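Work Package 4 report. The design task specified in the project plan requires that, given a folded chain encoded as structure tokens, an amino acid be chosen for each position. We show below one input record used in the internal validation round.
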């Protein structure tokens, strides 16, 4: 364990070494063919491959997918949730800006012959259409500077657009499940989703919301973005719930309690937002 910690410390101190370590890991994942426990081919992190990644959240996604016509996956990464939806026979629209993630995502789809009923947009989502710096790697890549301690020297230039530009009224009659995990940029994405928020029927959203974790110490985003996100969803006619199969509602009072605890003690940073007229189960 001490040797492993020394290696990790060395990798962090030497940027070029860190880069080549990630290149090797990426090539290893890209070349390897792995069979997921549910019977389809999948390459990704070990937890994703062996079916132990975000177990409770995965069960919630499957449950809601069973009642949906299409999944929109924002921050699709290597396609963990995309493949789950395709396995269930659902239509998929996915957004992923990082080319290294996209190559593995494409591989996972092609190996399973899932080439129809899925559309991939190689862009990031935000509140504006522009070119921005995407910092970091893999599942932790973010448009937020210094997110999770990411190195400002390592970034990719990616295009951003609005969710409304790609979705808006295209799926107005469909029951949509929108799964979003974009490392601290969720509120900005929602600012660009005004029309999508008002679709009829309203989509069900499963969104990762960070109150404290990974946010730069000096950032004004700490706690404030999380509160704004919940308030935005409530304003648009949604109720909020913990992303587990108990579906406990998060009221303003409960949110204040979470804020007072600085987000500590939460079993997950994923939350469900659904039409306030809907009984969630």
């Amino acid at each position: 364990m001490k040797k492993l910690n020394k290696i990790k410390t060395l990798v962090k101190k030497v940027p070029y070494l860190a880069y080549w370590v990630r290149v090797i890991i990426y090539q290893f994942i890209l070349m390897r063919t792995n069979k997921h426990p549910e019977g389809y081919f999948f390459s990704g992190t070990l937890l994703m491959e062996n079916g132990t990644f975000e177990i409770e959240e995965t069960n919630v996604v499957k449950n809601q997918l069973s009642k949906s016509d299409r999944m929109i996956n924002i921050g699709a990464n290597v396609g963990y949730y995309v493949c789950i939806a395709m396995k269930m026979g659902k239509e998929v629209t996915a957004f992923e800006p990082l080319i290294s993630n996209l190559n593995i995502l494409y591989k996972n789809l092609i190996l399973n012959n899932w080439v129809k009923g899925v559309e991939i947009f190689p862009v990031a989502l935000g509140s504006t259409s522009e070119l921005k710096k995407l910092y970091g790697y893999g599942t932790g890549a973010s448009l937020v500077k210094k997110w999770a301690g990411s190195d400002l020297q390592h970034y990719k230039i990616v295009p951003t657009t609005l969710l409304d530009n790609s979705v808006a009224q295209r799926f107005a009659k469909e029951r949509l499940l929108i799964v979003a995990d974009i490392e601290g940029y969720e509120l900005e994405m929602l600012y660009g989703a005004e029309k999508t928020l008002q679709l009829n029927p309203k989509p069900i959203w499963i969104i990762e919301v960070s109150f404290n974790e990974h946010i730069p110490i000096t950032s004004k985003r700490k706690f404030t973005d999380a509160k704004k996100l919940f308030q935005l969803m409530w304003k648009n006619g949604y109720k909020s719930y913990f992303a587990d199969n108990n579906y406990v509602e998060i009221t303003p009072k409960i949110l204040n309690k979470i804020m007072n605890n600085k987000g500590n003690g939460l079993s997950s940073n994923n939350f469900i937002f659904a039409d306030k007229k809907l009984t969630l189960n």
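The chain has two domains: 1-31, 36-274. Validation will be extended to a larger panel in the next phase.
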